Amino acid sequence: MNPIGNLNKIFESRIRLGVMSILMVNEEINFNDLKQMLEVTDGNLASHLNTLEENGFLKVHKGFIGRKTNTTYSITKAGEKAFKSHLAALEEMLKFMQ
Fold it and tell me: What is the DSSP letter of 67?
């Protein structure tokens, strides 16, 4: 049995892992809050959010608060399922190593 065979490559980045972890426990979160929580730059975060969105793991909502744009993110059902599978694979990998 390959202990890493069931891991999802999309979640190998620590930033994507952090984004998905935050979104698993928050219904919706905006870009600036994600940036602050993960302590990353705008460009770095945007790149990882695009990857997650392109893979169907995130929903993006663009709106306004007053005259300022407000972009929020939420997890999709596919994203939730994929992330839970990734976490289960990590647990199996740890059990395999013991």
Answer: T
